[in-house]
Design the sequence.
């Protein structure tokens, strides 16, 4: 079982998201994340889907998605260079001044040109806003949980796009 | 510019342009405008069923007998939900069908209005395409899409939900000839390289076998299959849905394989070294235990839907293609193989365990009834319900060229048979229709007798009456220590309801009861003379078993033979 990525162009219509997600539940495929938004064409949406699957199942998922009338194109992102980001909000509660300092230091270390920042702050609370990769976000969450007692996490799914330069990943 | 027309008028226009001459309909509040429009329309026959589920099965029977796309029209809410079993049945057996449902007006959608349901959502996983028309201007395009999608590629049901206000709103009178669908490109060609690879594999085989499914019939490739198998001297086995795609009198045909397949056919699948499967999706009733399926074979899989390939059985050579096109190409370079030794082995297996039933202790032997049908109705379309009788029919009824075998293969829907037989007769009134049904399945849609008598179709109902739910009882007999829980349909004192002869009388329909072998052929002959519905109540022993049997989840080679 490996993590896989698919980008899906679909008709931007009522029910299409339900049909795509319904396929995963109906066939017992392990859907990890699914994000969707419109493209430069208003009547076309693009989904980014991550699944955990073996090779045979993953082939089937692609074929089944391709068979849907509403699906315009299926792109397997697993083996091609891509840019991928996931949005994450992490609220850390119950911080004293030392804890707050540490929170800012963590944000600074994880920051890659504006991809992590403390975007809000209260008496004993700070709010992280991150647009890292899914893996990097996992690392950040693990660190926050190991350092602080009360961490609240809100994650969006990942959005991915094919890289222009082949060396990017 | 042409004048605008209402949605209901466009609906009728669309049907006419699609060449629809018959629709299967049941009225209701949210569809009355279209119903009224049909009243004013000539050239479209509207068949009124007695239940929406049966209506869909009637449409299925019509589609299966004619090859045309069937059309169903029902109202919203319960009218729509009643169709769901039929839609699922059509989906699993790849039947081209467009189902139109009425819907509450747009402004009430989502308000839990009277008789509102999200039928598109409910049927999403059992339709090829489903949509609610939300804009009158899209109506023509969406109906065209529906017909295009239902009938092309791997056919299947499409549902188009039309809100009441859309039916009466005026808009463009245009009904397009064709719609470009960005995400829908049914496969029309075959990858010659893959096909040649498949051919080379077959050519080098010592024990080649063709497994043909319902896709061969859908593609109209029966003759091509016979030509290919004959040119290469390769034996052919079929699935239930594939029954009839190979002439039963061909020396290369070895019968159905699978859960209740012939001994020789199941042995052939187990022992073959190359399995050339075409137009089948390897349903578990065909494969038995997957890990043990065709254990010695390299497998070729030809299917029009690439999503069907390597889904259940991982194959060595996948070929995404229409069965007819693939077989036509293969016939171009097919050469005779020496398969004498292999064919002799198959004959020996057939001789070792020929397909035959022991004489029944009570009533009429099912084999005798099937043989009687073969004798009296050699050209009829055969329709079955679901249960033991269905398996006996697949085992003992011999199909000749031009005969359709209409059965619920994928979903296994009890109650399918009678309405499907009515639909088959509506679609092809010149042809005799023989329904093989059981007393359990028949009772699930027997109200359709009113439909049949009212519209005057001709169907011979061969009711295999064993007073039980036979297929489950058989499992209880073999695997559950004869604990016959809820499979006996009789009362404790042995009374049985209904008395089918008296019941038929209520419908003014001819009915005959047959209790011994001598009565089989005379009853069938009498039924043949009678134009209309004849019900023959064949009394069958509840202890008669369908054998061979492969227990679910066990290897195909492990057959229960006695």
Sequence:
């Amino acid at each position: 079982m490996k993590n896989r990525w698919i980008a899906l162009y679909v008709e931007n219509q009522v029910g299409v998201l339900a049909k795509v997600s319904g396929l995963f539940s109906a066939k017992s495929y392990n859907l990890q994340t699914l994000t969707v938004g419109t493209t430069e064409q208003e009547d076309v949406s693009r989904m980014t889907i991550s699944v955990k699957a073996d090779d045979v199942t993953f082939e089937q998922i692609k074929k089944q998605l391709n068979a849907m009338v509403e699906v315009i194109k299926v792109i397997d992102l697993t083996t091609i260079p891509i840019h991928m980001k996931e949005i994450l909000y992490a609220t850390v509660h119950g911080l004293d001044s030392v804890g707050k300092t540490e929170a800012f230091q963590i944000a600074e270390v994880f920051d890659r040109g504006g991809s992590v920042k403390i975007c809000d702050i209260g008496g004993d609370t700070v709010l992280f806003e991150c647009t890292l990769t899914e893996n990097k976000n996992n690392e950040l969450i693990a660190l926050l949980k190991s350092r602080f007692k009360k961490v609240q996490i809100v994650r969006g799914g990942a959005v991915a796009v094919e890289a222009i330069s082949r060396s990017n990943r | 510019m042409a004048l605008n027309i209402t949605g209901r008028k466009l609906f009728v226009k669309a049907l006419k342009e699609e060449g629809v001459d018959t629709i299967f309909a049941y009225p209701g509040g949210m569809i009355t405008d279209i119903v009224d429009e049909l009243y004013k329309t000539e050239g479209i026959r509207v068949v009124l069923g007695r239940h929406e589920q049966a209506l869909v099965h009637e449409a299925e029977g019509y589609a299966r007998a004619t090859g045309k796309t069937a059309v169903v029209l029902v109202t919203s809410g319960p009218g729509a939900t009643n169709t769901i079993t039929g839609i699922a049945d059509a989906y699993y057996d790849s039947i081209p069908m467009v189902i139109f449902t009425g819907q509450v007006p747009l402004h009430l959608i989502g308000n839990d209005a009277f008789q509102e349901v999200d039928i598109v959502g409910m049927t999403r996983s059992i339709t090829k395409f489903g949509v609610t028309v939300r804009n009158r201007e899209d109506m023509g395009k969406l109906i065209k899409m529906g017909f295009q999608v239902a009938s092309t590629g791997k056919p299947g049901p499409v549902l188009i939900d039309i809100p009441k206000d859309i039916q009466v709103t005026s808009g463009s009178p245009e009904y397009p000839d064709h719609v470009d669908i960005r995400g829908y490109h049914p496969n029309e060609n075959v990858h010659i390289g893959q096909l040649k690879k498949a051919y080379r594999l077959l050519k080098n085989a010592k024990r080649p076998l063709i497994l043909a499914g319902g896709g061969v019939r859908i593609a109209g490739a029966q003759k091509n299959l016979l030509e290919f198998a004959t040119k290469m001297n390769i034996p052919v086995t079929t699935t239930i849905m594939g029954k009839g795609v190979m002439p039963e009198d061909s020396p290369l045909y070895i019968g159905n394989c699978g859960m209740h397949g012939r001994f020789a056919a199941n042995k052939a699948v187990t022992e073959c070294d190359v399995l050339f499967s075409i137009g089948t999706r390897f349903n578990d009733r065909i494969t038995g235990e997957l890990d043990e399926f065709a254990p010695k074979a390299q497998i070729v899989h030809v299917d029009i839907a690439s999503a069907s390939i390597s889904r259940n059985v991982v194959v060595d050579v996948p070929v995404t293609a229409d069965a007819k096109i693939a077989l036509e190409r293969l016939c171009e370079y097919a050469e005779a193989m020496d398969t004498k030794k292999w064919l002799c082995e198959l004959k020996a297996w057939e001789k070792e365990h020929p397909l035959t039933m022991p004489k029944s202790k009570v009533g009429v032997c099912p084999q005798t009834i099937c043989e009687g049908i073969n004798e009296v109705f050699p050209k009829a379309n055969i329709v079955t319900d679901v249960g033991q009788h269905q398996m006996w029919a697949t085992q003992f009824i011999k199909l000749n060229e031009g005969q359709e075998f209409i059965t619920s293969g994928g979903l296994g829907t009890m109650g399918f048979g009678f309405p499907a037989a009515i639909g088959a007769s509506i679609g092809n009134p010149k042809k005799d229709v023989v329904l093989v049904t059981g007393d359990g399945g028949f009772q699930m849609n027997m109200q359709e007798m009113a439909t049949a008598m009212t519209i005057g179709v001709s169907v011979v109902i061969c009711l295999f009456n064993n007073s039980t739910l036979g297929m489950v009882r058989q499992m209880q007999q073999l695997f559950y220590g004869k604990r016959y829980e809820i499979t006996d349909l009789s009362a404790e004192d042995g009374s049985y309801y209904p008395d089918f002869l008296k019941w038929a009388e209520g419908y003014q329909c001819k009915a005959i009861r047959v209790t011994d072998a001598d009565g089989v052929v005379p009853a069938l002959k009498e039924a043949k003379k009678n134009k209309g519905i004849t019900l023959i109540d064949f009394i069958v022993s509840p202890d008669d078993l369908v054998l061979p049997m492969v227990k679910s989840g066990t290897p195909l080679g492990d057959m229960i033979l006695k």
